[in-house]
Amino acid sequence: MSVVTATTFGLLRIGALDEEWSLWLDTRGKGIVLALCFVSVLCIMHVGIESIWVEVLLGVLGGCLLTASIMDWWEQMVYRFIWWIGGAVGGLLFVKAGISSQTLCSIIGFWLLQKLIFARLYGRADCYAFCVSALAMAALGGGFADYVIHMFLVFVGLTAVQMMRGNIAGNGNLKKAVPLVPYITIAFWLWVAFGGGR
Fold first, then answer.
1. What pTM value is reported for the model?
2. CA 177 to mean position of chain CA atoms
């Protein structure tokens, strides 16, 4: 069992212990989760990271993003402990990569944009997902332009899917709200597979 799969099912199990939130996946749900875990593992392998610890940390981060996606998808909420773990792992990846002061400034600038501007447009969980993804992208050699490309991919994907579903009103808003974290997670792995890595 991969690190991504183990982390995902472990975090879902911890969340299910809370009386206020109980998520029991049916066979189809487990199949989707395992398929997404498999794709994320392929993306990690595609980058060709030499350090096993970086692979493990990236796997745990992938598990956090996938768990957040599932929670957002089924329950329209994400527990904060997911972001505490994801942020800590992203921070370790960031430190281990030996980041320059320029990259640190770009991360801080991106976080400020997320918290001060974009958090008003979507939920806090979406804001945290973008920030955690940016940490990992920085550790893999990405910069501010990559964080923006990631956001662009998210909203292009969201727009395309919702147009096909007929969920976009005449004023450009969504007729029915949809979870954004799954789009953020998919766009992150697309970046890792096709643009990420050194």
1. 0.81
2. 19
